[in-house]
Amino acid sequence: MFSSILNTRRSRELHQWRNLISPLSNLLLPQASPALASPFSSATASDPTPEDERKRKSFTVHYLINSLGLTPKLAESISSKANFDSKQNPDSVLKLLRSYGFADPQISTIIATYPRFLVENPEKTLRAKLHFLKLNGASSSEITEIVSKVPKILGKRGHVSITGYFDYVKEILQDQDNVKQTNRTRNVSVLRELGVPHKLLLNLLISKAKPVCGKERFEESVEKIVSMGFDPTSKKFVNALYVFYELSEKTIEMKVCIYKKLGFSVDEVWSTFKKWPYLLKYSEKKITQTFETLRECGLTEEEVRAVVKKYPECVGTSEEKIVGSVDTFVELGFTGEEALMIIKRHPQCIGLASDTVKSKIEFLVGKMGWALKDVASTPIVLGFSLEKFILPRCNVIRALVSKGLIGEMPAISSALTSPKLRFLKNFVKKHEEVAPELISIFTGDCVSIAL
Question: Into which family does the record put it (predicted)?
């Protein structure tokens, strides 16, 4: 349905491209013979089957949970980026890191940042880099502290790059009383006094843009950010610093004008910028393309602006993702109007993975019995964690229904969007005399009955 939007647009662009290159194709491109047909046109015997891939991911998840104590969610995330069916190589990786003094929580941080380390030869990747840092004077405690806080160091290639990053991070961790007062150290002191957290300072030090290495431009950027009311303890403060430091005044004015042409007032542009500072980093082509895609999905000009104000991150979302989100809702049984209602009321749904949406709809509608229109009217529930938030509450609701303590299913908004204390008051404490086990069901101490 909605994917036809992309197909039509791409067919038109492809037709124009073919018309452009066809006069030159016979002159520039050799004719392919049958013997030179693409070797990738069909699967080979060595290609893993979906079942093989599923088994590898399952093995990886169990390994990470058992070996490092990772949460199932984090283990699943890592398995989607790197998976294996034998513990020989990952065991070698963990053994190597532990030999350098890394504790399991530190190792977890490193693996979460670079999952590929689990399937690569640790002797050629990790040991070589860690050994090089030691040869250059880094102590064991410095290596474990700095690398675990900024695992990006291990992802760098080349000795110069590795030592450069390591020295940057080391400088901020050390007492700076005897350090030469460079722009970087002075600016870091300014940010510290403003209350910028240690972790965010580290990210600033190793960034390619190096905003803390400037002087006048750094001071101007910080002054603007502070005057706009950004919280120095938040990541948005740092993101805004990147934007103001990297973009010239002329470029910023041009970006503001782009949004003005699309119907925003200047005040609306800056209020939206405060929600998502990268709003001004996107190109004019990307900005207008996102607005066009949302309009082609069925939203009015005013509705598109409302969506961007609520969820400015959508400006950076691909058109495939936007259209795919609407298609997913329609495939699950929502009407086109309901799908658009979901996007308008909770545009963050655009960023949700298709499988995540499907599993939540299957549970809320298929197992709990709420109607699709109920979900469409309260789409914020699709952003809640199924395991940590939805299941505990629904387990309580199902227990109340099974015991006849409530006559019918409550509204989805009452069950899932009311504050925790109100939910406990209405559905747990109210019935604790006849059903004292409800609090245990809610906290997960009792076996779930809603699965």
Answer: Belongs to the mTERF family.
Q: pLDDT tens across 76-124, in order?
A: 889 888 899 999 999 999 999 999 898 988 898 888 888 888 988 888 8
| pTM score | 0.61
pLDDT score at 126: 82
Q: How far apart are CA 125 and CA 164, in angstroms?
A: 18
Domains of the chain: residue spans and CATH: 53-173 (1.25.70.10), 193-246 (no CATH), 248-383 (1.25.70.10), 384-451 (no CATH)
For residue 412, CA distances in Å to 100, 331, 343 come to 52, 22, 18
C-alpha to C-alpha distance for 256 and 261, rounded to whole angstroms: 9
- Two tokens at 365? 């509608």
Q: Would you list the DSSP string of 390-445?
A: IHHHHHHHHHHHHTTSSSSPPPHHHHHTS-HHHHHHHHTGGGTTT-TTHHHHHHT-
Q: Which residues contact 59 (CB under 8 A, 6 or more apart)?
A: 83, 84, 85
Picking from 129, 56, 59, the residue whose alpha carbon sits closest to that of residue 93 is: 129
